[in-house]
Amino acid sequence: MNIAIVLSGGIGSRMGLDVPKQYVEVAGMPIICYSLKTLDASNRIDAIWIVAADEWLPQIKEWVDKYGISGKICGYSKPGENRQLSIYNALMDINKSASAGDYVFIHDAARPMLTVVMIEESIDGMKGYDGVIPVLTMKDTVYLSHDGKQIDSLLNRGEIYAGQAPETFVFGKYLEVNRALFDSGAIKKINGSTEPAIMSGMKMHMIPGDERNIKITTKADLVRFQEMIKE
């Protein structure tokens, strides 16, 4: 099985809005539903698991029914203190029914421009690997600074990549490394989903990312997404 985890536990404090960014309506539909509809439309995704705060579950359930997404929704998990703990909570819930060889497909509710093509490329890219991450190459010159004020060295931009979501992993291997990080407490220091995989030596495959696959973090990102939808 290919199981999608949609992370929707963030509060969007940097946006300064009345509701978390993923629940803002754009063109008549909440942002979270854009990626949910894409996941539901893909024949490569068998199940969808949503991580969201309890107070938003009635509203989310109403939306998934309204937009015909409910068929693949298999459950909901509680958010953690950080992104990786939210993932861990979902992994532990999914573990009750998933097999070690299944794939887990992790995406952010605040990345509404997910495409069916990206889903297919991510799943297909798993052959011979433990995980897949879409990446973007660096177009600008990249520098290293230890204090944020002075340039210490020039980096080779041909060897530097920016990671995106979705990130796909072999479920059993990814659960094992996250469980170890949880037991040690180190999971609280994890910033990206692929970080635990790299730390444990999982073989990660980089595939081309999509510049339109933006993550809505600021009001400028929201405006950009609104413009994309208008286009």
Q: Your description of this structure?
A:
By secondary structure, the chain is of the alpha/beta class. It has helices spanning 31-41, 57-66, 83-94, 116-124, 171-184, 194-199, 219-230, and strands spanning 2-7, 25-26, 29-30, 47-51, 73-77, 103-108, 131-137, 142-144, 153-155, 161-163, 167-170, 204-208. Strands 1, 4, 5, 6, 7, 10, 11 and 12 form an eight-stranded mixed β-sheet that branches. The chain has a two-stranded antiparallel ribbon with strand order 2-3. Helix 3 crosses helix 5 (171-184).
Number of E strands: 12
User: End-to-end span in angstroms?
Assistant: 35 Å
Structural class, from secondary structure content?
Answer: alpha/beta
Number of helices: 7
* Percentage beta strand: 15-25%
Mean pLDDT value: 94
Assembly form of the protein: single chain
**SSE succession:** EEEHEHEHEHEEEEEHHEH
Q: What descriptive keywords fit this protein?
A:
231 residues; alpha/beta; eight-stranded mixed sheet; two-stranded antiparallel ribbon; 7 helices; 12 strands; globular
Element layout with pairings:
Blueprint: E1 2-7, E2 25-26, E3 29-30, H1 31-41, E4 47-51, H2 57-66, E5 73-77, H3 83-94, E6 103-108, H4 116-124, E7 131-137, E8 142-144, E9 153-155, E10 161-163, E11 167-170, H5 171-184, H6 194-199, E12 204-208, H7 219-230
Parallel strand pairs: 1-4, 1-6, 4-5, 7-12
Antiparallel strand pairs: 2-3, 6-11, 7-10, 7-11, 8-9
What's a quick, concise take on this entry?
The chain is of the alpha/beta class and 231 residues long. The chain contains 7 helices and 12 strands.
